[in-house]
Structure formats: structure tokens, C-alpha cells
Design a protein that fits this description.
- This protein is mostly helical.
- The protein has 20 helices and no strands.
- Helix 15 (299-312) packs parallel to helix 17.
């Protein structure tokens, strides 16, 4: 880094599209004031929340995003999600033509085989387990470092079409994980951009089921952020886009995401219809047909979705019943979330002492979690406690 700075100072080179914006921010000056006008367009592309137009653009943009994230580029970390991007993503994906792979590379480029693809999948599985156990903020930078330093050379390498499709699918799944981790850390604009990159990569892999799963993840985030109309649209687009190839578990998960958004709008009837559709679909699931990445969604997960929905439509007793059946004992963060939902449901049922006892159980569960989303659940519960401020158990909890 010292050599790089010396080169800038001596006039032998200029800061590029990554370091230039960092200098602008550190010095509180514009690119024009520092004589760095050449970087402005590239910086705008970095913060763009649009869908990449081609496989080559997807690789380039993903590379730049990973590099900027790894180096703590604050405008990206603080970026807000773009509502228009959610609508554009679902529409463009539904009508997208069959994609080509990137143009063939030079013969001396790195040759990529299925063993390399399997390495990506196995590595991503390790990071997914860490995410589940310790939260998105625990190993997020390690994931991005792996993608930036180990995966990008493979994407820019030489491969046959079957290997290329498999490679893009594996990288799409890993980028989806990066999106979930950024979402869990509440870097919401960054998470949205990762989801969009994953969507394009899945499209290039001809993996419509995976692409639909990414739209479902976007729906989950949109609901969390209060954009319920967009969340419903994304969930319905996911379902519509794979109507001919969706497995039962995928249909169940997409209906559950639709129900979660509808519950937040207060539309109890529509929410219950979506939940019923999710339950029917999951009852008919055949585990042998399911993609590996959706097999986590089982009856316990569905019970957690029921609990969230019934809490949000203020059906407290039903929320309590489903939440009590939704603690798996094997997924720490999910258990934290549903235990906080159970605490909230007890509160809505007029039982603040039991609510506080359950919330303390959740805090014990989440002791090792590094998850800003978990903090948000706790904050929401504390807001709901305000009306019970004179109860001794509430004072002790606070």
C-alpha cells in the first residue's frame, strides 16, 4: 500500500475506481477537486442496484463488489436498498431469454473442471454452517475474501459449457449466502446487490429454481424492511417463474414468504390462504426431488413461518402454539428468532411475565450470535414491552 501511495504522489499512476472513492471520502473532497474525474463513472457502476446485462458484466460487477466490500468501502456498506430494483428483478427474470455463457477465453487461461466446482460448493457449505451457528457478521469477511481471491479467477478461466453452467450455479449459491450474511448484518443495500448478482449468475447457469429461491430471499428482506407490496410481488414472481418445474418444498417456501408479507399488511384472510397453500405443498414434498439448498425448509421451519404470521396478525394463541413447535435445537439463529416470536406472542396474549421469561431464554440461545437482525428482534420486543412498564418482571428484564 505504501508503494501505491508513493506512486500516486510521484505522478507515476492515479488511484483506480476502487481506491479513488475511498480517498474522496477520507479527504472530504469530490473526485473533481482531487483531479480524479476518471473514476466517477466506475464508482457509479459499483453502487448501481440494477441487474447485470450480460454474463461478462455479472462477473466484472461481482468482482468489484467483493473487492470493495472486503476493503470496507463505506458508501457501499451504508447503501440503502432500491425499491425499483426489486420490481425490475422480478420482471426481467420472468421474461429473460435463454442466456449465453461468457465468450471463450484464451487458451492459456486457467482451466476449470467439475472438481473446482465441487470445491466451491464444499467451501460454501462450511461458511453456511458458521453463519447458522454464529450469525452473519461472524464469517462474512471470510466468505467475501474467498469469493474475491479464489473464485474470481475460476470465473475468468476456461471451461466447457456444462462445467460453466455448474460453475455459475455454485457461485450463485455462494453469492446468495453472501447476500444473506450481509442482510443479517443489516447492510441492506449491499445485501440487495449481492442478491441481484446471484440472480444473474443463476440465470446464466440456467437454474430457474435457484433463481426463484433468490427472489424469495429478496422477498424476505423486503418484508423485514417494511416494503410489503414489493415482498408479495417477489414471492409471487418466484412461484410463477417456476410453475412448471417447482418442487413441493419450493412452492411451500414461496407461499410462506408471501404469507409473511401479507401478515404485515394486516390482510389476515389472504395470509391464511397463503399459509394453507404452503402447508398443502409441504405435505406432498418428496425429499429425493428437492435441490440441496432448499432441504432446510421442513415442517419445523414452516411452523416458524406460521408463528411469525399469526403474531403479526395478532392471533396470539395460534402464534404461541406454532412457535412452541418451531424450535429445532439444531439451527441456533432460527431458534433465537422463533423464541423471540414466542415471547412477543405471549406479550400480545397479555402474559408479560411469561414473555420476559421466554425472551431471556432467547438471549441465552443467542449469546454467541453476531447478528444485527437478532438485535432488531429484541428491539421490537422491548418496544412492545412499554405498555407493561409497571410489571416487576418487565422492569427486571429491561
Amino acid at each position: 500500500m505504501k508503494r501505491r501511495i508513493a506512486s500516486w504522489e510521484n505522478g507515476h499512476s492515479v488511484p483506480d475506481g476502487f481506491y479513488g472513492p475511498l480517498l474522496c471520502e477520507a479527504l472530504g473532497s469530490t473526485a473533481a477537486e482531487l483531479g480524479l474525474d476518471h473514476i466517477t463513472g466506475r464508482d457509479a457502476t459499483l453502487l448501481d442496484a440494477g441487474c447485470p446485462a450480460s454474463p461478462e458484466e455479472a462477473i466484472t460487477r461481482a468482482d468489484r463488489l467483493w473487492h470493495a466490500d472486503l476493503n470496507g468501502y463505506e458508501p457501499l456498506l451504508r447503501a440503502e436498498p432500491c425499491q425499483h430494483a426489486w420490481n425490475e428483478a422480478s420482471l426481467r427474470w420472468l421474461v429473460a431469454p435463454e442466456p449465453p455463457l461468457p465468450a471463450p477465453r484464451r487458451s492459456d487461461d486457467l482451466r476449470v473442471g467439475l472438481a473446482d466446482v465441487q470445491t466451491i460448493r464444499s467451501t460454501a457449505d462450511v461458511f453456511a454452517r458458521l453463519d447458522d451457528r454464529f450469525g452473519g457478521e461472524h464469517a462474512r469477511h471470510s466468505v467475501i475474501q474467498y469469493l474475491s481471491r479464489d473464485v474470481v479467477p475460476l470465473l475468468r478461466g476456461r471451461y466447457t459449457e456444462p462445467v460453466g453452467r455448474a460453475l455459475f450455479a455454485a457461485v450463485a449459491e455462494a453469492t446468495l449466502l453472501a447476500g444473506w450474511m450481509a442482510y443479517d448484518a443489516c447492510h441492506h443495500g449491499l445485501a440487495q446487490r449481492y442478491f441481484l448478482q446471484a440472480l444473474r449468475l443463476a440465470q446464466d447457469a440456467e437454474e430457474r429454481r435457484l433463481a426463484a429461491g433468490i427472489l424469495s430471499a429478496m422477498s424476505h428482506q423486503a418484508t423485514f424492511l417494511g416494503h410489503f407490496t414489493q415482498a408479495v410481488t417477489l414471492a409471487r414472481s418466484a412461484l410463477m417463474g417456476v410453475s412448471g418445474v417447482a418442487t413441493a418444498t419450493l412452492r411451500a417456501q414461496f407461499h410462506a414468504m408471501e404469507a409473511r408479507a401479507l401478515a404485515r399488511t394486516g390482510d389476515t384472510r389472504a395470509c391464511e390462504l397463503a399459509l394453507a397453500a404452503a402447508a398443502r405443498a409441504l405435505d406432498s414434498a418428496d425429499s429425493g426431488e428437492e435441490p440441496e439448498w432448499i432441504t432446510y425448509f421442513d415442517q419445523v421451519e414452516l411452523a416458524a413461518e406460521f408463528a411469525h404470521c399469526f403474531r403479526d396478525v395478532r392471533s396470539a394463541r395460534r402464534a404461541v402454539t406454532h412457535a412452541e413447535n418451531a424450535v429445532s435445537g439444531s439451527h441456533v439463529r432460527s431458534d433465537f428468532f422463533v423464541t423471540m416470536v414466542l415471547a412477543d406472542a405471549h406479550l400480545h396474549a397479555g402474559a408479560p411475565e411469561e414473555a420476559c421469561r421466554v425472551a431471556l431464554d432467547a438471549l441465552d440461545l443467542g449469546e454467541q450470535l453476531r447478528s444485527t437482525r437478532c438485535v432488531a428482534y429484541l428491539g421490537e420486543f422491548r418496544e412492545h414491552l412499554r405498555r407493561f412498564g409497571e410489571v416487576a418482571a418487565v422492569r427486571e428484564f429491561q
